[in-house]
Amino acid sequence: MTLTELNERFAIGNHVQFKEIAEGMIVAEVANHHALANIALQGAHIATFQPRGEEPVIWLSPFAKFAPGKSIRGGVPICWPWFGPHKTDSKLPGHGFARTVPWEIFETKALPDGSTFLRFGLVESDVTRTQWPHPCTLQLSVTVGKSLRVELSTHNTGNAAFELGEALHTYFQISDVAKMTIRGLEDCAYLDKVQDFAHCTQKDGIVIESEVDRVYVNTAADCVIEDKGLKRAIRIAKQGSMSTVVWNPWTEKADKMGDFGENGHRGMVCVESGNAMENVVKLAPDETHKLVVVYSVEKL
Question: Which of 56, 94, 257, 279 could bond to 50 as cystine, CB 3.0-4.6 Å?
C-alpha cells in the first residue's frame, strides 16, 4: 500500500498520519489529547511514546538507524517467534525476524476517551516461512492514551502444536541509570547472562552499576522503574507473560554497538515482558496466546 493509500484509508484527521521518514520506512504518527507516539510499519515498532506534559517514557536513540531490514535502537522491538539465539540454527537472527520485516496496518480508531487504537499484522513471506514453518498469524494492537497498552497476539492456524518465545524488548527513558531503581522482582529467580547463565535470586530492588543482562523467570509481577531524577515511576503491568528481562549494556558494549552515542546507555534501561527460557509458550492448534503490557507514569 502506498503512502497516499495509507493516509486515505487509515489517517484520522491530525490524530493519525502516515509519513515516510527515510527511504522505505513509513511511520504512523499519533497525536491525541493524551499523548504522542510514532510506530514504524517495519516491525510494528513503537519508536516513541510521550504523554502530554511528561518526559518521553520510551527511549529512542538519537543515533537510531531507520533502514529496511535493520533493527531500530530503542523503542519497543518485538522479539518473536524466539527470544535470544535460535535453539538449533545460529545463522538465524537473534530474537527472531518480526522486528525487521514489513507489517501491515489493519485498523485505526479514535476511542471515546480520546485515546487512539491501531492494529497491525505481520506480513508473511518466503523468508519468514523458511525461518518459521509453523502456520500462524501475529497481530499487534496498540492503544495510545494516558498510558500505552500493547497486545501481541499469536494464533496457531496449523494442525500441530509449537513452542513460542517472545518479548516486548522495551527501552525506557530515565534521567540517569545511577538515579534509578527497579522494583517488583524481589525474591525472583533469574538467569544471569553476564555470568554465563548462572542461577541467581534477586534480593532487593535492582540497582545498575555495570552491565546487566538477566532473565527473571516464573514472574507475572508488575515492575516499577523508580526514577529520582525525573521524580516519577514508570509502571509495567503485564498479562500472559512469565518472564521479565532487565538489560543495560553498559559502557564498553554500548560503545561497540555504535548507535547508542556517548554515554547513551546511562539514559535508558530495558525492562522486557515476555516468555523466554523455561517460560516459552506451547501453543496448540487453533489456540491464541496474548501478551499484554500497559506502560503508565506515576509520581514519586
Answer: 56
Tell me the pTM: 0.97
Sign of torsion, CA 221 156 124 280? Answer: positive
Single out the residue of 185, 112, 97, 143 nearest to residue 294, CA to CA. 143
Distance of alpha carbon 144 from alpha carbon 95, whole angstroms:
25
Which residues, including other chains, have CB under 8 Å from residue 169's CB and lie 6 or more apart?
Answer: 76, 77, 78, 79, 95, 99, 245, 270, 272
Cis geometry, peptide bond prior to residue 51 (ω within 30 degrees of 0): no
Q: Where are the domains of the chain?
A: 3-299
Question: 3-state DSSP call for residue 97?
Answer: coil
H-type alpha helices, the chain: 3-10, 126-131, 250-257
CA distance 245 to 111: 32
Catalytic residue IDs: 169, 272
For 22, 40, 220, 281, the CA distances from 92, given in Å and listed in that order, are 26, 23, 29, 20
Q: What is the mean pLDDT of the chain?
A: 97
Quick one: how many helices (H) and strands (E) in the chain?
Answer: 3, 22
pLDDT digit string, tens, across residues 245-274: 999 999 999 999 989 999 999 999 999 999
Cell of 60: 529512542
Matching CATH number, 3-299, of 3.40.50.720, 1.10.3470.10, 3.40.50.10490, 2.70.98.10:
2.70.98.10
